[in-house]
Amino acid sequence: PAQLQAALGRLGVSAVVRPAGVSGDTSGGGLARVGFSVSKDTQLCVVALGGNDLLQGVDPAQTKANLRGVLQKLKARNVRAVLVGVAAPPRIGASYAREFNAIYPSLAKEFGVPLYANILAGVVGDPALMQADGIHPNARGARKIGEALAGIVAKALK
Question: What range(s) does the SGNH hydrolase-type esterase domain occupy (predicted)?
Answer without folding.
Answer: 2-143
